[in-house]
Design a protein that fits this description.
alpha/beta; Immunoglobulin-like; 2 domains; 24% strand; elongated
């Protein structure tokens, strides 16, 4: 995947563009001077200005029909969201861009029509999740057929022209597939039960010795992150050796992943021994990884730093490293360097890039082997699923050697 430039695209970082000359002299309601205006919307204003009485609805309907299934409209680095319908109060576009704030990015009504629009300038390779918020009602964009499932259900999706779709997330019926076995796991330390989904690769041999990755938010990495498909594809392609993946479900993720020493003990003293007793996995730290997203990335770093004898690789996607007043930064700054390789990535659109830059700087200062990447995406599964392959190839892939 393509790494974006070091620039945040959240909130005020969106740069206004005014096509004032195109709308000069327009009568009736017109966009504010500081508003971004796309060429297509500017032309629509011009057509409405020149229309005879009674023609406006037909012009707008023709515009909608002409651009059907092309919404949001993309013109170079401009993306225009369009809503067509009755609005009592207002319509906004909550998204990765504004951290899902329903009060931001209000759409403008086009003269006296039922068409509302918002044009934003985005990086050329950006991908975002968004929805419409119409008079307090959340809805998918009814004119955009592209959707993606996030942690709170389906969202509409916008991909800019330079975005590269991650083909490795797609299921491939023509290749061998691994299998998943589900265990209901009782923890004495946490006094609770959770599901653990263990993926074994195609051709799994009980007499073998496999690389292993332990994954926080296990079910979501399977269902939303498409990680089983990623593993099937990149193992088949020879990009990484066959891997056993242990997908661990949380019970109370905010409690367990908040640098919780009891959860750390559960992983180290209960889950790892269970996996080693039941599966043909290697014990060398360099062949064992732990990974997660957001708080899952933070707890993975916490555990690997304390237990380099178990985990020689650690992966974090959009790691929430600022928890507890920055205790993870302090921990990594004060402790001696341990033999762990770190993969960190983050989005630049309403994500935790500031936290991740800080952790990257700490790890580099301590002399760790680290791969750090930034992408013009948000804090979302659409972002994370696209870079699982980057992480695993960094850990064990032929491409990285």
């Amino acid at each position: 995947m393509f790494a974006g430039k070091r620039k945040s695209w959240f909130g005020s970082a969106l740069i206004p563009l005014v096509l004032a000359a195109v709308i000069a002299g327009a009568s009736g309601a017109a966009p504010a001077e500081e508003e971004i205006l796309s060429p297509k919307i500017a032309n629509l204003y011009k057509m409405l200005d020149e229309a005879r009485p009674g023609e406006m609805d037909a012009i707008v309907s023709a515009f909608i029909e002409e651009n059907r299934e092309r919404f949001p409209l993309v013109e170079e680095n401009l993306a225009t969201f369009v809503y067509y319908g009755r609005v009592g109060l207002r319509v906004t576009v909550p998204s990765d861009l504004n951290r899902w704030d329903t009060k931001m990015h209000e759409m403008t009504r086009l003269k006296d029509t039922d068409l509302f629009y918002l044009t934003l300038e985005l990086p050329g390779d950006a991908r975002i999740d968004y929805k419409f918020y119409v008079d307090t009602v959340w809805m998918l964009d009814p004119m955009n057929p592209e959707t993606i499932t996030g942690g709170f259900g389906p969202n509409s999706e916008l991909s800019m022209p330079g975005y590269v779709f991650p083909a490795e997330i797609e299921p491939n019926d023509t290749i061998p597939h691994g299998t998943i076995e589900v265990h209901n796991f009782d923890s004495k330390i946490m006094a609770n039960s959770r599901n653990i989904h263990v993926y074994t690769p195609a051709g799994y041999d009980e007499g073998g010795s496999y690389h292993t990755v332990f994954v926080q938010d296990g079910s979501e990495y399977i269902s939303l992150g498409s990680m089983v498909d990623v593993l099937d594809n990149i193992i088949y392609q020879g990009r990484i050796p066959p891997v056993v993946a242990v997908f661990v479900d949380p019970v109370d993720r905010n409690f367990e992943y908040w640098a919780n020493p009891d959860y750390e003990r559960t992983v180290v003293e209960e889950i790892v021994p269970f996996v080693r007793a039941n599966y043909a996995v290697a014990e060398e730290p360099a062949r064992n990884a732990i990974m997660g997203a957001s708080l899952g990335g933070a707890i993975s770093l916490f555990i690997s730093a304390d237990h380099p004898d178990l985990f020689g690789k650690c992966g974090s996607q959009s790691g929430a490293f600022g928890l507890d007043g920055g205790k993870l930064y302090d921990k990594m700054e004060k402790m001696d360097r341990v033999p762990v390789d770190f993969y960190l990535d983050t989005g630049l659109i309403g994500d935790l890039d500031t936290d991740n830059v800080r952790m990257k700087d700490v790890l580099e200062m301590k002399g760790y082997n680290i791969l750090y990447r930034e992408f013009n995406e948000g804090h979302s599964w659409g972002n994370w699923r696209a870079h699982i392959d980057d992480m695993l190839v960094f850990f064990w892939g032929e491409e990285a050697k």
